[in-house]
Amino acid sequence: MSAQPGNAFEAMGREDLLRALEMFAKNWLAHDGCWFLAAEERFDMETAIDLDARSWKRFASAEARRIMTTFNIPAGGGLEALERALSLRLYAMINAQRTEWSQDRRCLRFFMDVCRVQEARRRKGLADFLCKSVGSVEFETFAATIDPRIRTNCLYCPPDETPGRYCGWEFMIA
Predict the structure, then answer these.
(1) Which residues pair with 100 in a beta bridge?
(2) Sorting pLDDT into bands at 50, 70 and 90, what band is 19?
(3) pLDDT at 140 (0 to 100)
(4) Which helix (H) or strand (E) holds 169?
(5) CA distances from residue 154 to 90, 127, 157, 170 in whole angstroms, order as listed
(6) pTM of the predicted structure, to 2 decimals
(7) What tens digit of pLDDT does each residue of 32-53 get?
(8) Residue 39 near residue 51, CB atoms below 8 Å
(9) Following DSSP, what letter does each residue of 101-167 receive, concatenated?
(10) Dist. CA 78–CA 172, nearest whole Å
(11) How far is the C-alpha of 159 from the C-alpha of 118, rounded, in Å?
(12) Class of domain 14-173 (CATH, top level)
């Protein structure tokens, strides 16, 4: 990568680059929230959620493809490829998340232990954003882009009861 005139990132050290990456991830999520609020204000909640799901379907596929290309993750690489790709999403920079394998390694579970969106809403005294329908589209699309054999199941996600938790997803090869 050749340095562009005025490109401050070329001169940054590791710590500053990591801070910049975290800032970009926060900005990306803030933009998503601003977009959603604008859609809700212009239309209504139901329409905003529909548009959000359509947007996430496109974005999740694009994000998965870029991660695969950038980090040489093979298409059709199964649950191992998915686990690696999930760790490289923008979310991973700003939300505490983890994966667990079933004993027979035929099932990968993904948990969002901290969600900035829900945390912000809870701090403001607002109800959780009911993200299950959008999350289902997002995680199904992301996983299927990594490997079309992967099937996704939601373990819990608002509006499900999730006391103290956020969301959990399960992935298996069909």
Answers:
(1) 109
(2) very high
(3) 98
(4) strand 167-173
(5) 20, 20, 7, 6
(6) 0.92
(7) 989 998 999 999 989 999 999 9
(8) yes
(9) E-TTSSEEEEEES--HHHHHHHHTTPPPP--HHHHHHHHHHHHHHH-TTEEEEEEE-TTS--TT--E
(10) 9
(11) 12
(12) alpha beta
